[in-house]
Amino acid sequence: MLKQVVDNAVSKGLTFAICLLPGEQRARYFISGNGHHGESSATDSFVISPWLAQWHNRITIEREVTPDTFAEFAAATPGICTPPATTTQVPQITRDEYLAAVSRVIESCRQRQGKTVFSRAISSNTADGTTAGTIFDDLCREFPQTFRFIFHTPETGLWLGATPELLLDYDATSRRCRVMSLAGTRPRTEGDTPWDDKNLRENRFVTDFITDTFRALGADATTGPQQTLRYGRNIEHICHMIEATLPHGVTAAELIDRLNPTPALCGTPREAAIADITANELHDRGCYGGAVGLVSHPNGCLRLFVTLR
Fold this sequence. Notes:
8 helices
């Protein structure tokens, strides 16, 4: 059913989102509320914050519905929002252009003794019979401990992924926050293999950035023990969970705008790294590196994840 309803919604260009929280097998379905009927099954909304967007500019798909309601909606509703969703056109970048851009970034990092996370867009055709629904169904089964998502809106086009990285878990009643420092990557190992200095240093950049962000807002952050977080069958990351209580007078929106993006997505120092990316990347990141997740109403609790993978 999941594959079919995804492909129905995608083929009509509807505004929708489907997601599964880490460790859960129950998919949750969201549609645009304008002009649609049927009762909501919960009080959450699906939210999307593209790369470098401020929280107040987020995109919201406001109505959570039951699986049956979504299936009926996707099967019966004509394409009322946009033409059928298609893959975003990736700029054709030659090898020489890419290497020249990398050289400029390396020189910038050398001069300022910093780091820039430089991304590359790769475009290819899918195999015959492979659809967005097929890919999403595979992601849901292959990466059960991640936040698995697919969404389409007129502003963003179609995106899907399985992200392991929690940006913010915020309890609005207690004002308690949980943030993941996820940086440092290697091929998957067996047993308790020590991490090398390079990866430990990369994770420390991100951990220090997060704790400094809380400190600047007047919150004392507690960093949990180092963990190794495995992603799929092939790679693993260094992970620390960081917790703090947000002081009264400081909003979750202010925290999000300060946290996102972390150095894991852009580099360090952050502003210089973002300047490198803006000047030298030959594609628009779109939603890549932004945030995606759930907002609860009316209490304002949040579960946001970094838009990766």
